[in-house]
Amino acid sequence: MRNEEQELVARAKAGDSDGFAGLVKLHQRRAYLVARAVVLTHEDAEDAVQDGFMRAYQALDRFDATQSFGAWVNRIVANAALDLSRRRKVRAADELSDTYASAFRDPAEDRELLERLQGALATLPERARAVLVLHDIEGFTHAEIGELLGIPGGTARSDLHHARRKLKMLLANLRA
């Protein structure tokens, strides 16, 4: 994949729009996951990804081809998502699609749990929520999260600890 990425970068830098389109196709899913970890809604994540790729296209001449394009564009997308979140001050959690009811759980309980979790996540500061989602749901390492959010890896680790502690406190009285 690294060779394919390097070839696409070279083509894009040479002005080939298909080269940049290939880079978008190669990295759009991961970029969406990064953006979605920062913002609360699907629509805002899509906006952040679009804005991030636009910024990357405009700054392509400054990209160091010896580096990973994916890491570079994900950092730009994370910053775009943080900017968008700051501008909009989005705090309401988006609705998740209906899920199939489990034979062992009352669907109303699942909905209540989901609403409580979304509400608790929405109360966390943006960076804490981003670190928690990127690590615990998306599987990024502390170092990767630090790179994406522009913070030291140790700060990402500390933010994760504090976010988990706050979430545990907010969800302390849930039924098992």
How much strand content do the residues show?
Answer: under 5%
Radius of gyration: 18 Å
**What is the H/E string?**
HHHHHHHH
Broad structural category: mainly alpha
CATH topology of the largest domain: Rna Polymerase Sigma Factor, Chain: A
Mean pLDDT: 83
- Report the oligomer: single chain
- Number of H/I helices: 8
Which CATH first-tier class of the largest domain would you pick?
A: Mainly Alpha
- Considering the protein shown, what is the CATH homologous superfamily of the largest domain? RNA polymerase sigma factor, region 2, helix turn helix motif
The name of the CATH architecture of the largest domain is Orthogonal Bundle
Calculate the terminal CA-CA distance, rounded to whole Å.
44 Å
Q: What is the domain tally? A: 2
What's the story with the biggest beta sheet? none
The proportion of residues forming helix, as a percent range, comes to: over 70%
Shape: elongated
Low-confidence stretches: 90-105
Total count of strands: 0
